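Hi team, as promised in this morning's meeting, here are the two structures we talked about. I've kept the exact order from the run log so nobody has to guess. The first one is mostly here for context; it's the second one we should focus on when we meet again. Sequence first, then the predicted structure tokens.
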Amino acid sequence: MKKMVLMKMAIRSSTNEDNEETSSASLEFVEVTDNNQSIFTVTGDTIEIDLEFDGESYIDFRTERFGDPIEAGGVLSSDESFEFDEDAITINVGNIFGVDITVNGEELEYPVDVHHHYITIERE
């Protein structure tokens, strides 16, 4: 049974001439460093990250790979909700085989097949 975690990172919103909030974003793979860190960029005003679990995975959130967690980590397998207002976020994923990550409706593909992975999403 799949469970879903919805995280919302408020990046910045803009308004059009009718004073309506607008948003657009696209996810782009940049590079892999140290064999287990993938860097992605995102454009747009907001970003939504959905984590869909097939099992359990340790998850925590940091502003940089070796920084202190900004949200207490733990083994997740059920619904959780997180909100961040950061220019970049790193998701420490303990078991990539137990979680699928979707960013603004686009499925994030792990560029390397390693068990423990750091996913960094930076705002352009």
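And here is the second protein, the one for discussion:
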Amino acid sequence: MVSYKTYDLWQATILKIKGFTLLAVHINGNSRALFEFEDRPEREQLLLDFVNRKLSVEPLGFVDAMKSLKALTYVDKLDTKVKEIVSQNKQG
């Protein structure tokens, strides 16, 4: 399976609202979220249309999709912090 990865929350939101399957959210060392989606042939044109302001989306759906993606980044950060604390407790 081919995937498409982006650090761009706006691109990720467009892909999510247009039905692309979110495969994973990777948080790197500097707390940046890398969104990984299942790729489809229409992705490139879809993102070009977005950048060129030719894409129409339902506004509330866009906001909801963005909020849910942002929430996933916080959950992953929280999971990482919990794992660090558990690891420290095991060592102590």
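Starting points for discussion:
The longest helix spans residues 59-91.
The radius of gyration is 16 Å.
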